[in-house]
Design goal:
Blueprint (H helix, E strand, L loop, with lengths): L7 E6 L5 H10 L3 E2 L3 H11 L10 H19 L6 E4 L2 H10 L6 H9 L5 E5 L16 H17 L3 E4 L5 H12 L7
Parallel strand pairs: 1-3, 1-4, 2-3, 4-5
Length: 187
Amino acid sequence: MSKTAERLFVLTGGPGSGKSALLDALEEKGFARTTEAGRGIIRDQASINGQGLPWKNPQLFAEMMLSWEMRSYHLALTHAGPVFFDRSVLDVIGYLRLMNLPVPSYMQQAAQTYIYHRRVFIAPPWPEIFKQDSERKQTFAEAERTYQAMITTYTGYGYKLVPLPFSNIEERIQFVIEQVGSKKNRH
């Protein structure tokens, strides 16, 4: 694993499992992080009545997520210390598989080009905190299927999944920091 990949940590899983809340809390503690492509694209596309919405054009939505994730990767390289990703390029592949859509060869190439730490944090489905909203229209059953798609995708590319505990946010932060073995380090 390259020195760069050693400090790029992904949090993945199904929607509504506490990933973004954990990333927000890590950011408050001084850690660098990315923002989730899916929510950002949905927000932007909905504001202009665009076609890149998952319920309008899932293939276009995936293309937009791939671009977002590649840009997030490049931006993360400007940070000296650990960076936490709210999903990654591999989540786009998992999404396409979940939707039974073909995965273009260039997306597979992206998954081999944009390398993250081999230990990936995965948030299991958590019914007690799952909520739908204007951007998260998936049901809990869809969240569970997304979780399974991410397991298959990440392990298929050789990543080792580290399940996040069902615990409060402070305990989850402590768990992640212990796993990463690093202190915050912004540039």
